[in-house]
Automatic annotation (TrEMBL), chain A:
Similarity annotation: Belongs to the binding-protein-dependent transport system permease family.
Subcellular location: Cell membrane; Membrane
Membrane topology, record value: Multi-pass membrane protein
PROSITE patterns: ABC_TM1
Keywords: Membrane, Transmembrane, Transmembrane helix, Transport
Superkingdom per UniProt: Archaea
UniProt region (Disordered), positions on chain: 1-28
GO cellular component terms listed in the entry, alphabetical order: plasma membrane
Protein name: Sugar ABC transporter permease
Spans through the membrane: 37-55, 93-119, 131-150, 170-193, 214-235, 272-293
Boundaries of every ABC transmembrane type-1 domain copy: 97-293
Phylogenetic classification of the source organism: Archaea, Methanobacteriati, Methanobacteriota, Stenosarchaea group, Halobacteria
PANTHER family assigned to the protein according to its UniProt record, in alphabetical order: ABC TRANSPORTER PERMEASE PROTEIN, GLUCOSE IMPORT SYSTEM PERMEASE PROTEIN GLCU
Species for this entry: Natrialba chahannaoensis JCM 10990
One Pfam family cited in the UniProt record for this chain: BPD_transp_1
UniProtKB/TrEMBL annotation, chain B:
Principal subcellular localization: membrane
Name by which UniProt lists this protein: Sugar ABC transporter permease
Alphabetical keyword list: Cell membrane, Membrane, Transmembrane, Transmembrane helix, Transport
Entry's localization field: Cell membrane
Length: 303, 334
């Protein structure tokens, strides 16, 4: 292929498009046209823009109080390098990280499981109301949670789990997250179950298998890729939630990491290095999940 | 009714087959379901019953927590409940809604909510489309670029609010340091302190967080356009710009609609970011309904007024979700 001076997409240029291309680097560089160079320049400038808040946070998190006041956030932490902000933030956030894990993992698993069961019940069997139920679920995905906060607080204060046990608030929050996670999980599983091959299930029905048996033996094993997508979606959502936790948790010992991070930022308003280190620590689990399961994350986001 | 039945059949390719399977007790069945209405109906009902353990518990939870709570919230908004104690469900009043037009804080936050909704949604779509078009040009390391642009979506708003309050800090933050560095001191404002810039500062940070989402929605749309559409346009001699404007972008309509609904609904409830940056009382320059509602109910214990503001928010969301859910339903996309 000859050098292309326009900015037309070059069909031979990384056709698989997944960036997984370690061959033919030499030849490729030789083919770069001015238009392609401008394209990559633009992409790299955008990378710098998108990473700049993380970059300024990271450099600052490694600087001592004096150093971050005197040097620009653009400067790497060479003078006055310290890991103290990380240690301070970690010791402040440790209990809240544990609370977040104890809340997020079971809530994500339960909402995914309920979503899968509901989607199966609404997809692979036929009755007329299912479309109405699905419309209700779809609308529930988008409802602003402000519209339920006051009743939610009333409801849980009437149930009074927090009076029974000091950890009761966390259980209330867990059940709340499961309930509000069901609609999106159902919609995600539903779109997947519609693509499943119906013949297998049909054949099993003809053999007289019950719906429960078909679910266990056929649908559940086939759902594993979708469970990955849904679990990652729910893990990220619940870990990152702030509003429900703010309304339902009053005992500091039960604070999840988003609440405790906000409290930390409030109490150390002038100490940006501890705030930045704390933000990274609080975000670490979701960043790891994102980096390890990027494809599934993107799938969950686009429904 | 007929179209409803058709769309239901489309929803459910197995419908006839399943019904037949039950009638036939396992032996070859070829009967037409429609000819045996009564029997099929009864069998459908039994299908309904058998599937209940699967969908009923989750549906009951959703009905209770989502729809029950919404209805309860509407009821509370009519009670005038405030302070300690319990709401009085015997006395209903429209007072909460009557006081809204005179409440300057409410008006300011309604205005900010609409401004945020429009500016944030349109800018995120434009930036996201731009990213998608760049990333779609058969570039190397595409997945790396995509991963970086989408990364902010994995972060909690609490985390991003903390990063951005440092970005915007005056005079030490990255933005103002950079402006000083390139000789544009005149533009280095106190972004979060100056009421003129607060809302814009929030919108920019939220665009940073959500444009990657728009990018992947648009990328999925772009990837579903058949290659021959590009080819045909090119054979017609269309320039690149025309190709995108006339051929590609019109085909991204459903991506745009889907992303717009998600962004708008998010904009209505963009509570976390503003609360973490500015607290419960961010001032009229950046107050939005989601924050006002929380402040009235949970800080001032004006429960009924908070509930009434929540009803307004819900109604706004409904004007966005309603048509979307309805068209999805009509198209049989559910």
């Amino acid at each position: 292929m000859t050098a292309d001076t326009t900015t037309e997409p070059e069909p031979e240029d990384d056709v698989n498009g997944d960036g997984d291309d370690n061959d033919e680097t030499q030849g490729h560089l030789a083919r770069l046209s001015p238009g392609r160079i401008a394209l990559y320049g633009g992409l790299l400038a955008l990378v710098a823009a998108y990473l700049s808040p993380l970059y300024s946070g990271l450099t600052t998190a490694f600087k001592s109080q004096d150093a971050y006041r005197e040097t620009s956030p653009l400067q790497p932490p060479i003078d006055g390098f310290t890991v103290d902000p990380w240690l301070t933030a970690a010791s402040e956030l440790a209990f809240a990280m544990l609370n977040s894990f104890a809340l997020t993992i079971p809530a994500a698993v339960l909402s995914a499981l309920f979503g899968s069961l509901a989607a199966y019940g609404l997809t692979k069997v036929d009755w007329r109301g299912q479309a109405l139920v699905l419309v209700l679920f779809l609308a529930a995905v988008f409802i602003p949670y402000q519209a339920v906060l006051v009743p939610l607080r009333q409801f849980w204060s009437m149930v009074g789990l927090s009076q029974i046990h000091p950890r009761g608030e966390l259980v209330e929050l867990l059940i709340t997250h499961v309930a509000y996670g069901i609609p999106i999980c159902t919609i995600l599983f539903r779109s997947y179950y519609q693509t499943l091959d119906g013949e297998l299930i049909e054949a099993a029905r003809l053999d007289g298998a019950s719906l429960a048996r078909i679910y266990r033996k056929i649908v559940l094993p086939l759902s594993i890729p979708m469970f990955a997508v849904t679990l990652i979606y729910q893990f990220t959502q619940i870990w990152n939630d702030f509003l429900f936790a703010l309304v339902l948790l009053s005992n500091r010992a039960n604070y999840v990491v988003t609440l405790e991070l906000n409290a930390l930022a409030g109490s150390m308003a002038t100490d940006y290095s501890v705030q930045m280190a704390g933000a990274f620590i609080a975000a670490l689990p979701t960043i790891l999940v994102y980096i390890l399961f990027g494809e599934q994350f993107a799938k969950g986001q686009t429904m | 009714m007929d179209s409803l039945r058709n769309s239901l059949r489309r929803l459910n390719p197995l419908s006839t087959a399943t019904a037949d399977a039950e009638t036939g007790t396992g032996v070859g069945v070829e009967a037409d379901a429609d000819e045996r209405g009564g029997l099929v109906d009864r069998l459908r009902r039994s299908d309904f019953v058998e599937s209940m353990p699967f969908w009923l518990p989750p549906t009951a939870l959703v009905l209770l927590f989502v729809y029950g709570a919404i209805a309860w919230n509407v009821v509370i908004s009519f009670t005038g409940w405030s302070g300690l104690g319990q709401p009085d469900y015997t006395n209903f009043t429209l007072e909460m809604y009557r006081q809204m037009p005179a409440d300057q804080d409410f008006i300011a936050s309604l205005r900010n909510t609409v401004a945020l909704l429009i500016a944030f949604t349109s800018a995120s779509l434009v930036v996201g489309l731009g990213l998608a078009l760049l990333v779609d040009r058969k570039i190397r390391f595409e997945s790396t670029f995509r991963t970086i642009y989408l990364l902010p979506m994995a972060l909690s708003f609490v985390v991003t609010a903390i990063f951005w309050s440092w970005m915007y800090a005056d005079p030490d933050g990255l933005i103002n340091t950079a402006l000083h560095g390139i000789g544009l001191e005149a533009l280095a404002y106190d972004w979060l302190g100056d009421p003129r810039f607060r809302l814009a500062a929030v919108i920019v940070a939220l665009i940073w967080q959500f444009s990657g989402y728009c990018m992947i929605v648009y990328l999925a749309g772009l990837r579903s356009i058949p290659d021959d559409h590009y080819e045909a346009a090119r054979i017609d001699g269309a320039s690149t710009l025309k190709l995108y404007w006339r051929v590609i972008i019109p085909q991204l309509r459903s991506s745009t609609v889907g992303a717009t609904v998600v962004l708008m609904v998010f904009a209505l409830k963009a509570f976390d970011f503003i609360y973490v940056m500015f607290g419960t009382n961010p001032g009229r320059s950046v107050d939005i309904l989601a924050v006002t509602m929380y402040r009235e109910a949970f800080s001032a214990s004006e429960w009924a007024y908070g509930a009434a503001i929540a009803v307004v928010l819900f109604a706004l969301a409904l004007t966005i979700i309603g048509p979307y859910a309805y068209t999805q339903y009509k198209r049989g996309a559910l």
